[in-house]
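INSTRUCTION: Work out how this chain folds

Token vocabulary: learned, describes local backbone geometry

RECORD BEGINS BELOW THIS LINE
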Amino acid sequence: MLTLEAFVSKAHDRVVYWGTSGERITDTYSYNSFDLTEIVENGVLLYGRDIRSKLKAPGFNEMYADVKRHYENIRKYVQKAPRERRGVTHAKSRN
């Protein structure tokens, strides 16, 4: 939970999180273009006033930057398996 102003402007504010990993209170909330796209396109109002009309869907540059960041993280932390474990086998040529 956080104020509408803090959510729209990405300003620092008191934020309360809850979910499968437990509850916590912090002073920042961050979301990326994927999160915002999901909210704008598929968000479901649980309580209060629907604010999706006040939200602007992310543009190409924002989406590109987030895709690039995710890709770089995947490349950084990927664990490579031996070739035979990846399903790559060397087929003998048949004459």
